[in-house]
């Protein structure tokens, strides 16, 4: 028997978990509006999340009347999404295709139709220098080499995660469980393209760290660049052979090629998080590409590698 557990330790691990944030948006006449979040990737079916809000309020308790979400490609209706009440998300049956542009439209009675567009980018492959020592330790040093396409601006997100597999035996049964744990906060780096959100000197010394691990190719446009960072491991996994029931343990490195919309959204969310409780700063305007409302419609594609640190075969 198998069961799967997914642990997300930072808000950025899923765009849809960001739907509880306060959105800084000023509609005309202070009217209600739709919040639309849609993060598309070619490995998953179309999906979106909706909420209702007024200007500068927490909107999680607001309700939409007769909501509807549609996907358009080349100006033609491709699919109408179906609401999944258990997951509180709108899901489709088709998957987006690489290099195609899609428009997500959302409707609700009495509110303006909102929409946003995004183009599905191809994944960017990288080479990962395997650490000389693969035995678990406090942290692992990584070197990721990316060959950048100089013909366009590119944006990325580093998304490392741990995979563990456990075995539990009884007198009559054997049960297996798998856990995926995303630990963005465990990544440390002094690399100039990753250590902060951007190379712009828009903040002085008191600037936010790059909690969402986003980066642009501004410093290595059209070049081959080696990104250096370290990833600390949970203490209890430093001696995996002593962990009861653990039979496999891997470190996975996912590089997401994200759309500009997602990059700007994560960047402004990161800044807002940093200055949120500072009374001497102005409110941060969260990036949105949604017409007549707020939220974001963005996309990404992934390239992933895995290194096994423990396998009790």
Description:
This protein has 313 residues and is mainly beta. The protein folds into 2 domains: 13-121 and 274-299, Sandwich (Immunoglobulin-like), CATH 2.60.40; 126-256 and 303-311, Immunoglobulin-like. Helices cover 5% and strands 43% of the residues. The chain contains 1 helix and 18 strands. The chain has one helix spanning 260-275; strands at 2-8, 33-40, 47-53, 68-73, 76-80, 82-84, 89-91, 101-107, 114-119, 126-129, 139-147, 155-169, 174-182, 187-188, 214-216, 224-232, 246-258, 294-311. The strands form 3 sheets. Strands 1, 2, 3, 6, 7, 12, 13, 15, 17 and 18 form a 10-stranded mixed sheet that branches. Strands 5-4-8-9 form a 4-stranded antiparallel sheet, with no helix packed on it. The radius of gyration is 21 Å and the shape is globular.
Main features:
Immunoglobulin-like, mainly beta, 10-stranded mixed β-sheet
Order of helices and strands: EEEEEEEEEEEEEEEEEHE
| Beta-strand residue percentage | 35-45%
Mean pLDDT: 83
Annotated CATH topology of the largest domain:
Immunoglobulin-like
Short description:
The chain has one helix at 260-275, and strands at 2-8, 33-40, 47-53, 68-73, 76-80, 82-84, 89-91, 101-107, 114-119, 126-129, 139-147, 155-169, 174-182, 187-188, 214-216, 224-232, 246-258, 294-311. The chain is mainly beta and 313 residues long. It folds into two domains: 13-121 and 274-299, Immunoglobulin-like, CATH 2.60.40; 126-256 and 303-311, Immunoglobulin-like.
């Amino acid at each position: 028997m198998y069961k799967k557990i997914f642990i997300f330790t930072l808000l950025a691990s899923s765009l849809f978990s960001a739907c509880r944030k306060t959105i800084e948006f000023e509609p005309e006449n202070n009217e209600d509006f739709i919040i639309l979040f849609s993060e598309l990737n070619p490995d998953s079916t179309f999906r979106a999340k909706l909420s209702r809000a007024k200007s500068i309020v927490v909107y999680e308790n607001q309700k939409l009347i007769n909501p509807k979400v549609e996907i358009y490609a080349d100006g033609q209706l491709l699919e109408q999404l179906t609401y999944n009440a258990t997951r509180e998300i709108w899901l489709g049956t088709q998957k987006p295709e690489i290099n195609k542009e899609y428009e997500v439209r959302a409707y609700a009675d009495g509110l303006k139709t909102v929409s946003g567009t995004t183009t599905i980018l191809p994944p960017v492959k990288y080479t990962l220098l395997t650490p000389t020592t693969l035995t678990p330790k406090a942290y692992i040093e990584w070197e990721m080499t990316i060959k950048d396409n100089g013909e366009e601006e590119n944006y990325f997100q580093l998304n490392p995660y741990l995979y563990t597999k456990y075995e539990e035996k009884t007198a009559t049964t054997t049960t297996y469980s798998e856990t995926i744990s995303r630990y963005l906060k465990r990544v440390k780096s002094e690399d100039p393209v990753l250590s902060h959100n951007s190379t712009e000197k828009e903040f002085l010394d008191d600037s936010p760290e790059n909690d969402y691990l986003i980066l642009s190719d501004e410093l290595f446009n059209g070049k081959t660049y080696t990104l250096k960072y370290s990833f600390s491991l949970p203490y209890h996994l430093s001696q995996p052979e002593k962990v009861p029931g653990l039979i496999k343990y891997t470190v996975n490195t996912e590089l997401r090629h994200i759309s500009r919309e997602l990059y700007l959204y994560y960047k402004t969310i990161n800044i807002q998080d940093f200055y949120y409780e500072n009374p001497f700063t102005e409110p941060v305007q969260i990036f949105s590409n949604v017409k007549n409302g707020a939220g974001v419609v963005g996309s990404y594609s992934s390239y992933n590698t895995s290194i096994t640190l423990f396998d009790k075969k």
